Structures are given as C-alpha cells and as structure tokens.
C-alpha cells in the first residue's frame, strides 16, 4: 500500500511538471526535402460481382458502353441493339497515391469510388484498371477485391448500422509499372521546405544544422533552408538522415481563431485575450473593461520593483436583465463559453467575433470555414 501511494504521488507530481516542459520536434516533422513528393494517380474502371446493387443501366449508359468495349477487347462481339441489364456491374473511379522512389513491382493501396447510381460496392471485384498521372502516362495497374467499411451489427445483434457504401479500398491492389524520377537536391545543395512559413522556425533550423555542420545551412526565405550536402549519393542519404533527426523547438504560431459556420465549432490555437471594447448584438451586450494594476514592494522591503499588470473583466447582459461577469480576465475562450451557455447561436458568435475583430479588440486572425 505504501509503494502504491508513492507511485500515485509521483504521477501527480509529474502531471504538475508537464505543463512547464517544452518539447522539441524533429526537422523531419517540420520540413520536407524539396523534390521528394508523392504523386496522385487516377483511372476509370469497372466493378463486377455485385449482388444486384450495381448501376441502373437505363440511367448510366456509360456503364453499358464500357462493358461492351471491354468484351470487344476480350473477343466477345455483341449483336447490335443488345439490351444489357447489368445490375451486378458498376462504373467507378480509381484513385491512388504513388509515394516517392516507388519502383516497378511495388504495391500501393487504391481507393474505388462509384460514379454512377450503384447502391453498394460491397463484395465487388475491381477489374484490371490502368492508373494515369497528370501527364496521361500509365504508372500503375489496379485490380482486386473491394473492402467496404461501415457495416456492423449493433450491440445484441438487434439492428445493423449501415454507413457509406459507395466507396471502398483495395489494400495493395495497385502495382507500380513505371518509376517517377525523383532528384534529391540540385548539385551540391538540398533544400528543406517547411510545412508552414515561419521566419523564426527557419532561423532555428539553420542554427541547429550549423551546430552539427558549421556553415552548411543558410536561410533562403521564410520557408526554405538551403543546405550544402555531399555529392556522393550514399553519403548524401546518410547526411539527410542525420539532418532530419535534429531536434528543433518550433516558434509559437500566431494567434488564430477558426470558426466553422456549419457546425458552430470555435477552435483557438492558443489563449486569445481581448482588449477593451463594447459590443451590442441583438439582445446581447458585451462590455470588456481593462485597467492597470500596480504592485509595489513593501515600505521596508530591501529590494523589489514596481510591477504593472492588466486586469480585465467581461460583462455580458441580456434584455431579460440577466448579468454574467467573468472576473478571470478577457479571455476569448471564456467569452465564447459564456455566450454558448446563455443560448447564443452560431450566427451570433460569428457576428460578435467579426465585430470584435473590426474594432481591434480581437488580437488574432479570424478564419471562417
């Protein structure tokens, strides 16, 4: 029992310390090598073997045309005017992502999506389908049995939950037929491209690389770092591996507030404070007061200095006379939480946030999606 209490107290102490610990990210997580990228492929094909859930041929004539063309290539010629009822066939679009350095013969996953009015692709088999790139060249071939998710019995087997059945996947259903040339750097240099533009993070990456390889890295702009690398290919790969494993603490992102106008979700990437302002919207009125608080050392203190901080209070009123005070400060998260608690709608939140942004009280980027 004593050892158990010691473990619990240790975990509690660790939880108290965690918020103050700053973690660094690897350069691999913050940037990518310029030129090393994936490529998207697309193709048109047919799925057969469906249990009567295929396309309605009277409404999707391209399915019938595709079947006739396929049978002609296989040596089966249908008499003109043949009426085909293809309830077990569906026309689909096949998409895949070809990773960098993929070699002929390697397998890739593919996604199969119905483009007609098929009710379900469950149990179907994708026929041999060429996958092309943006240059209209064939880079892979796809075929295989389709796995459709979203079907399962509820607890106790009393009901069945059916979700989206017009899209499925074929694991390792694509085979690479042509390699896409990928160059790792140009000449004596490689370029690191940050996932997001940030001058501070670029500067920290340059310092981290130069700490291991002096004068090897230089910043090109707020997104690209140029690094001098060995010319020999094997040495360059080892050099990139060491560079990617370096730890860098990324800069704190600029404050941003994202509002989803459809769901009403409000997301903030950090604590966003509000300046003094007043907003009137419908039956709501919001008043934000900010005043300085001066803290001085005691009369007989040997040392100390005067500290000036800002204390703010948020007051929310309604026409019904309801009053809500937020004494903990003008924090946007608390304001949004309070507005939601008194029944403010999504449109109310949007209008209030836009008003705060226009008045200069909201010191953050406001993005509405």
From TrEMBL:
| UniProt signal peptide | 1-24
Q: Which GO terms describe its molecular function?
A: structural molecule activity
Query: In its keyword annotation, does this UniProt entry include Signal?
Result: yes
From which domain of life does this come?
Answer: Bacteria
Q: Where in the cell is it found?
A: Bacterial flagellum basal body
Q: Answer yes or no on keyword Signal.
A: yes
Q: Which GO terms describe its biological process?
A: bacterial-type flagellum-dependent cell motility
Gene Ontology cellular-component terms listed: bacterial-type flagellum basal body, distal rod, P ring; outer membrane-bounded periplasmic space
Key words, A-Z: Bacterial flagellum, Cell projection, Cilium, Flagellum, Signal
Q: How does it assemble?
A: The basal body constitutes a major portion of the flagellar organelle and consists of four rings (L,P,S, and M) mounted on a central rod.
The role this protein plays is: Assembles around the rod to form the L-ring and probably protects the motor/basal body from shearing forces during rotation.
The record, for PANTHER family, names: FLAGELLAR P-RING PERIPLASMIC PROTEIN FLGI, FLAGELLAR P-RING PROTEIN
To which protein family does this belong? Belongs to the FlgI family.
Protein name as annotated: Flagellar P-ring protein
Species source reads: Nitrosomonas oligotropha
Its lineage reads:
Bacteria, Pseudomonadati, Pseudomonadota, Betaproteobacteria, Nitrosomonadales
């Amino acid at each position: 029992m004593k050892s158990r209490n010691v473990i619990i107290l240790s975990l509690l102490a660790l939880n108290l310390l965690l918020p103050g610990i700053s973690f660094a990210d690897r350069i691999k997580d913050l940037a990518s090598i310029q030129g090393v990228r994936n490529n998207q492929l697309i193709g048109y094909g047919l799925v057969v073997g469906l249990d009567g859930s295929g396309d309605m041929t009277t409404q999707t004539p391209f399915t019938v045309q595709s079947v006739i063309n396929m049978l002609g290539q296989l040596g089966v010629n249908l008499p003109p005017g043949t009426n085909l009822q293809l309830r077990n066939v569906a026309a689909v679009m096949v998409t895949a992502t070809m990773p960098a350095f993929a070699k002929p013969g390697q397998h890739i996953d593919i996604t199969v999506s119905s483009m007609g009015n098929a009710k379900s692709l469950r149990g179907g088999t994708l026929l041999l389908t060429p996958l092309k790139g943006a240059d209209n060249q064939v880079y892979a071939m796809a075929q295989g049995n389709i796995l459709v998710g979203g079907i399962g019995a509820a607890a106790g087997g009393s009901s069945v939950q059916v979700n989206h059945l017009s899209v499925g996947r074929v694991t390792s259903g694509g085979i690479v037929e042509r390699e896409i040339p990928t160059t790792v750097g140009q000449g004596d240099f490689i370029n690191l491209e940050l996932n997001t533009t940030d001058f501070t993070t670029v500067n920290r990456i340059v310092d981290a690389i130069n700490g291991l390889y002096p004068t090897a890295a230089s910043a090109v702009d707020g997104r690209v770092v140029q690094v001098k690398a060995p010319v020999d290919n094997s040495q360059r790969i080892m050099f990139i591996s060491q560079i990617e494993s370096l730890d860098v603490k990324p800069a704190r992102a600029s404050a941003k507030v994202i509002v989803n106008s459809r769901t009403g979700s409000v997301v903030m990437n950090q604590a966003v404070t509000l300046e003094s302002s007043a907003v009137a919207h419908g039956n709501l009125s919001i008043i934000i007061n900010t005043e300085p608080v001066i803290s001085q050392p005691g009369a007989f203190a040997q040392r100390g200095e005067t500290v000036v901080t800002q204390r703010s209070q948020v007051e929310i009123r309604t026409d019904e006379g309801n009053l809500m005070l937020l004494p903990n400060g003008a924090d946007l998260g608390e304001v949004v939480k309070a507005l939601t608690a008194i029944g403010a709608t999504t449109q109310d939140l949007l209008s209030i946030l836009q008003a705060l942004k226009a008045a200069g009280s909201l010191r953050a980027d406001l993005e509405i999606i």
